[in-house]
Structures are given as C-alpha cells and as structure tokens.
Amino acid sequence: MLKKVLIANRGEIAVRVIRTCREMGIATVAVYSELDRDALHVRLADEAYALGGQSAAESYLNTEAILDVIERSGADAVHPGYGFFSENTDFARAITSRGVTFIGPPPEAIEVMGDKISSRLAAEAAGVSGVPGRSETLTSPDEIVAFGQEVGWPLAIKAAFGGGGRGMKVVHGPEEAAELLESAQREALSYFGRSECYVERYLTWPRHIEMQVLADAHGNTLWLGERDCSAQRRHQKLIEESPAANFPDDVRRAMGEAAVKVSKACGYVNAGTVEFLFQDGEFYFLEMNTRLQVEHPVTELVTGLDLVEWQLRIAAGEELTLTQDSIQRNGHAIEVRINAEDPSGGRFSPSPGTITRFDQPSGPGVRLDAGYYAGDTVSQYYDNLIAKLIVWADTREKARRRMLRAIEETTIEGVATTLPADVLILESDDFVAGTHSTKWVEERLDLSSLHVDVVGGEGSDDDRVRRDVTAEVNGRRVNVTLFLPEGAAVASATPAKKATRRGAHSGASGGGSGAIAVPMQGTIVKVMVAVGDAVEEGAPVVILEAMKMENSVNADKSGTVTEVKVTPGDSVSAGDIVVVIE
To answer: Domain residue spans in the chain?
Structure first.
C-alpha cells in the first residue's frame, strides 16, 4: 500500500483525497500557492509545502516546483485531482520516471485519451462512433469555415487537452470562426497548459450522459453506472445525477459496454469517465476523461463505493475484488455545484471574494464536499468551485426534494453563488420530467428576473503584508516569512514594500456614462478598441479573464473611445474603469 501521497491540486478535490487517505492510514502532502497558504487543504494535510507564485501557471502548473516538493517530502505517490496536471502526459511521465506512483492511468493512456483528437480515433477503432468532426488540430479559422460549409452550422471548437467546458466555443457562422478560435486557444492554454483545439458538429438538443469505469492492472475493466450532466451553462455542469432519468436499461448496458471497449482500447488503468452525447435514442462518444470527475460522489452514493479508495488501491497494484454482476446501484443521487458566480439575469458572472459566513446543511442523505470554510478567500486566479452538495434518496423525486431542503439550509455570504439558479432548475417542470438538455438552461430556462445580492462581503487577505523576520527556534537562528495584516508590529522585522493595488471605482458598468468598468476582479487578456475608434453600444471593448473564464466587457453607449486605461496582462479590481467613451 502507498505510504505518503502528494496531492498536486487545491480546493475541494485536494480535501476529498486527503480525507480518504487519512481513513486508509496514508500520510498526505499538500502544495500551495501564495494565495492558498491558509487554504483548507493546507490545514488538513499532514505536511504542506509552498510552490510560490499566485496564478496557476506560477504555482500548480509549475512542474519543477512540484517535483522539488516530491523529493523534499519523500512522497511515494502523486494524486493529480482534476484540472491542472490531471490529464497531462508530460507531468505523469515526469512523476513515474522518478520511481513515484502516479495515481491515474499510464502516461500512454493519457496520451491517447487526454488528447481528444486521438481519443476520437481510438474510439472509432474500438467500434464506438463519435460526434462527426475533424480529428486533427486546428491551425487556421479557414479549416473551421470549410468544415461548417461541409456539414452545416453551428460547430463546437474544443480544447484537445481539456474538458469541463474550458476552451469550448460554439461557432454559429463563418464570421465568428477567427475570434472564437483565438478565444478557445487562449482559455485552453490558461487552464490546461496546452492551446491545441479541434472542431466537431454541435448537436441541437443532446443530453450529456457519462459512464464511470474502473480498471486495474490485471486486465479487469468494469462500468459502474451512468451520470446525467445535462444541466449546464457555458458548457460547464451545474447539476449532475445518477441514474439518468428516462434512460432505457438496454441503452445503459450498451453505453457501459461501449465505455469498457474504449477503456480497453487504450490500455486504461484506474478510475476514468467515458462521456457520451445522447439524442433521439442514439449515443455518440464525446471524450474520455482520464481522471476522477467532479461529479464522482453521485456514483459513490448509488454504488456504495469510495472511488478515491479504489484509485489508491489500483495504483498500489491491487486487483479489483468486484465483478460486473456484483455492482449494485441503489436509489438516486443528485449533486449541485456551488460555484462563486452571480447568476443574476442568467449571466453567471464570476464572484471572487472572502466567504464571511458558511452555514452547512446536514440531515439524512446529505453530503457536502467543500474546499472552503468561512473566512477563506475564493481567488480570481483559480476555478470558482466552493463546494459540492450531494444528496441520496430511494427515488429521484425524493432526492430532488431532499436537495431543495438541503439548499434551504445552506447560507453563504461574502460571495454570490449559483445556489439560487440551482433552485430554479430543480423546481422547473422540464427538470422534474427529465426532458432537459445541455442547451436547456441557456435557451429555455428563464433566469431574467433572478437577482442575487452579495451579503456580508469584505476584503480578502490580499491586503496582508509580507514581513521577513529573524527568529530563534530551539536555540537555532532561522529566517522566516510572515504574512500579517497591514500595521501589525513584529519585533526586528523589516517590512517588504507593499504591492501597489489599482484604485477601485464605484459602479459596475458606468450606467450609460461611457466610463466602462469591469464588474469583477480579474486579468485583461485582450483589448478590443483603441483611442479614436467609433463603437456601438453593446460592442465588446475588453476581454476579462476571471476564475479561468473569459468575460466580455461591453460598451454601455455608442461614441468615440477617448481613453484606454489597460493593456493585456493588467490585473484589475471590480469597478475599475478600463475604457472611456464620449
């Protein structure tokens, strides 16, 4: 069995892995960025090491820094979680080449399935059909236009090395191809460290149904059951459930068998998910996620299995003690993702900040997997997932009502969350009937009157000042770094210069004044206008990245640009004026 596991991740998934490791008697090592030095996963781990930096590229995507921590900590295994390096072949090989166990599939399987293009080819070779598309990397928007003229519009541009909707853009016509390809590549590089993208048909009213698989190194591969993840916005999941509603058992078995074929085709080992689109009684291979999924708890609740435990056991070389016939699926489970987003009007705008209050639900059949507690800060530099709320009951309707009760017991202040939108989804007739699709939230669900007020907001710990201090520990002179509230006194400390912060401005959009402000903290990735340009009301003026999502900031009136206050790469705070129009 493994002795010490380093979790190369943060937030909720790092906490999730730490808890199972502790129950199994396995020591854990956390890594953290400067912004995460007091994060929950850091507090729970047996050991924690600083990576330095603030952004993901500077910290959690810094291979050399993580490899250094592995050596210093003596970890004999690495769990990548999801996102970041979880589907990165080079990272997996860097781990295994040092004799350290990678808790996931072999690098060769990641190479085949982590690349969505080669995974399409592997699925086809295994006799599993995919969504019609081009199985090669895009090099020019002209290729998108040519494919659209061949098969029709709309099309989907997707990150070849990504998932979870990151780096995915829907192209409705040839005039959008160039801009959306650039945006998809930018998002993919930011979130996955690779910018390659491909294109495929965008189905009109599909359901997103995925199949959980487990495979060991002894030739055993099993499908555990499906999850319906069709309640989405921006192609990112909001609510997941198992089993899928209105899903024939013969289709379930056929999809499970197809998932096993795809897994065996690439020599897959460990936990993985094969994703399909389901429409008009037919299913199409979408991609394989060579990692643990965010929504894995719903499978755990209906099967009674701990998937992280099985990941660890398989990585240690154990053989599955389960058989396909022995897997039992009981009752119904639903998960809602609690994201730091403001769903007002259906916009789902990122809402970073400090959580000032977090009352957590409990009671029969309720589970909460959280990465934050009250007092913790949700940073603009990382994914916005605060927690996952999961419930189980013996029927779908009871689970739905239990989830509504659990949400009612949940209070989060300091940031806006997606919970009010989750309630509207759960109470809608289409969700109750199980007739929704991946496009339903954005095209059919009316969120126009939804308004969320942020209660109890306050500043984050970004206002703390670094102080370098000389101290004595057990008679030994050492130099240490402390991060303290500004003004706090420390004897013999030489304060470092405090970083200059951009002054905040009141207002969020200028209210038609022409003083265009950003609605949230983030980073400017593109400036769309220059001084002297004529712009129309509603036209984009800058692209703001916050919590790994790109957001268009638009002109609030027509006129001429007289001032541009930002350049790509600038960090901005909520309310900062970026463009002036007269």
So the answer is: 4-103, 132-201, 207-443, 464-495, 510-581
